[in-house]
């Protein structure tokens, strides 16, 4: 009730011909975060905070929220049994002893379980957030209380975002030798500001479409100077996190922010990759009329065979009720599209990057922005038309809601194994290129999660294994197999 009173629904029209960094600070707590709004006006960068051990090697919203965050982490651990199992199995061996990992990911209860697992396996970690809206402040506080050097809070400005990354990388007496990235911003910053750091980096682990694309660009240009592991295209990431996670979280994010009913609504989903497939399956199940835009004829054909109509965005932009982007590209939804949308059209992004919707083009004097609730803005045209923009074009599910813990356990376990593999690989195994996770590791990650379903695998007989030309213990599929 205090939150509602402080931020009433009708705040009046306010012009947003201001900078992106100013707008980025307009962030309030979501249902997933115990944010104390009483100190929202004070930047964490201006606060002097210490944890119970006297350390101030962190920057979070409020270290006093650590107890709440610890409860969130404990709840997440209950549904991340595979990662906890990996932690227990490898804790004695300390396979990451000596590893100094600098990370830039979403900072949620689930990623906190990953970070603490890496620490339990012997690593030292410094962490920042890859999204200015997805950080759970109480979880960041709990990590800081536990001794992790974390620099992140919900509602960072653009300047804060890069400052936090810089604080993670640039510390006297500490130099990273491993990078865990989500989106490529951390890798980009190191290349730009601290190229000498790569002399000691043993490898990069990247988990997003956007970040992987950047790595392949560097590799193609001959500028990738360390081995990199493409976790995004591992089976256990792409087929589970991208597909099943988005199938559930797209509805959660839209419901929490707009209370929209999907039955009969016309929705256009831009992109029919694994994220798009998950979104479309959920929307179709609730009775929405779903259109697809695609550049890839194979994905387009899949959409047609799944019962969706493939169109160009211009063909349906005037009639649709919801526009969802999940391509990993830039300027998928332009100002021209936004001008042609109907009144009350909802626009959101499910891709990692915030470049898919041209939000910058909306920050002009003739348009008025009105904040109606957390992460929900009405952009109002001179004729009174309103477009409902969610999370300012950033990732919807992690900005506006939460994501299923179990699926994130699969991704986190994959990331942990990728870090262990790169860090312990003998010289020469991996060159300065981008690699996929070995198939055997993908299968191991999957096997760790099967006990949660009381699933029992059938074992090959010696004769059957010989007939198929397989090892009885796997891998069971060739690298070119598509699941």
Automatic annotation (TrEMBL):
Annotated family:
Belongs to the adenosylhomocysteinase family.
Q: Where is the composition biased (Low complexity)?
A: 17-36
Q: Which UniProt keywords apply?
A: NAD, One-carbon metabolism
- Its recorded name reads Adenosylhomocysteinase like 1
Q: Record's Pfam families?
A: AdoHcyase, AdoHcyase_NAD
InterPro entries listed in its UniProt record: Adenosylhomocyst_ase-like_sf (IPR042172), Adenosylhomocysteinase-like (IPR000043), Ado_hCys_hydrolase_NAD-bd (IPR015878), NAD(P)-bd_dom_sf (IPR036291), S-Ado-L-homoCys_hydrolase_CS (IPR020082)
Ranges for domain S-adenosyl-L-homocysteine hydrolase NAD binding come to 242-403
Residues covered by region (Disordered):
1-56
Top-level taxon in the UniProt lineage = Eukaryota
Q: How is this protein annotated for GO cellular component?
A: cytosol
How many cofactors are bound and how?
A: Binds 1 NAD(+) per subunit.
For the ligand (NAD(+)), the binding residues are 273-278, 294, 397
